[in-house]
Design brief:
The chain is α/β, with parallel strands linked by helices. It contains ten helices and eleven strands. 38% of the residues lie in helices and 21% in strands. The strands form three sheets. Strands 3, 4, 5, 6, 9, 10 and 11 form a seven-stranded mixed sheet that branches. Strands 1-2 form a two-stranded antiparallel ribbon. It has a two-stranded parallel ribbon with strand order 7-8. Helix 1 packs across helix 3 and helix 1 packs across helix 4. Pfam families: HTH_1, LysR_substrate.
């Protein structure tokens, strides 16, 4: 059954005349008659009683008319909805973030600007770990996510927002305190305070030690930044964190850069890979948001701009997401 057959059927039913109906749908009468016969054959039922003077609906035809009108109205509504979404008059934008997002990104401000531009688009926001958010992107439950990531998995496109080096932090009275820099080899026997294994920062640290063939001791695994910093400040272990985080706690923690090895913590925006014809997602709402993100003055002209020391965005908030 084709859409045009329903249009032809409704026209004949409303006009009660094949010639007028043919003029209404702009086809010849013989083609209209053939279309109605094919529809009746497919349904296995007679829809019209035909005579030389008039055409009228059968009982089955009257019931089918209601359904045909409803189907055509549903198609019209669907077309209008698509047109509205293409024009960003309506739709949804689902965004995910890791926790405590961040000094690098003023997301509330970006969302407010997007809402001002496209008030008909409903914006949704959720939080989770890097692994959890990537799963949501793959399944289509969210359009994009802000998260730390070393290498994008298959099917995921990422664009760097900021890059910052990890530094070692320890208690002020720790044996490592006061050093200008530390080597990873010097940390192999130290107890570490780490994030949980599925957190992006934890994976980054694990990979750095694996690449140089060093085993380390992880004695604490936590799921929030404040607990990690407090455990380190109490002398219960050391940790590797982005420099901005460390500098915000300089009064209670000792900070030392990592020598000979640079461990870059990257904040990216991730979304499902497209068909290769465009770097942006196929749907208009996430595409418009990414274009807004790319045009933000804080980026210095574009998402591809890599910024050292984590100053891709200028805000007063020193919080950085590490999950």
């Amino acid at each position: 059954m084709e859409l045009r057959q329903l249009q032809h059927f409704v026209a004949v039913a409303e006009e009660n005349h094949f010639t007028r109906a043919a003029q209404r749908v702009n086809i010849v009468q013989s083609a209209l008659s053939a279309s109605i016969r094919a529809l009746e054959d497919e349904l296995g039922a007679q829809l019209f009683i035909r005579s030389t003077r008039q055409v009228r609906l059968t009982t089955t035809g009257r019931v089918f008319l209601d359904k045909a009108r409803a189907a055509l109205e549903a198609v019209r509504e669907a077309r209008n909805t698509v047109a509205a979404m293409n024009g960003l008059e309506q739709g949804t934008l689902s965004i995910g973030t890791v926790q405590s997002l961040p000094a690098f990104l003023d997301l509330p401000s970006l969302l407010a600007r997007f809402h001002t531009r496209h008030p008909g688009v409903e914006v949704r926001l959720c939080q989770g770990s890097t692994t959890h958010l990537l799963e949501k992107i793959r399944s289509g439950r969210i359009d994009l996510a802000f998260l730390p990531l070393c290498e994008p998995p298959v099917g995921i496109t990422t664009t760097m927002i900021a890059c910052e080096s990890l530094v070692m932090i320890c208690a002020l009275d720790h044996d490592l305190a006061g050093r200008d820099e530390v080597l990873l080899h010097a940390l192999k026997d130290e107890p570490f305070v780490d994030f949980e294994p599925n957190w992006g920062t934890r994976k980054l640290v694990d990979r750095a030690f694996l690449e140089v063939g060093i085993e380390r001791r992880s004695v604490f695994e936590v799921s929030d930044l404040e607990t990690l910093l407090e455990l380190v400040a109490r002398g219960l272990g050391i940790a590797l964190v982005p420099e901005t985080i460390a500098e915000a706690r300089r009064s209670s923690l000792n900070i030392a850069p990592i020598g000979q090895t640079e461990i870059c913590w990257e904040l990216v925006v991730a979304y499902a890979a497209g068909d290769g014809t465009s770097p942006y997602p196929p749907d208009n709402a996430p595409r418009a948001f990414l274009e807004l993100l790319a045009s933000a003055n804080s980026f210095g002209g574009g998402l591809q701009h890599q910024v050292n020391k984590g100053h891709a965005f200028e805000t007063g908030n020193s919080s950085v997401s590490l999950s």
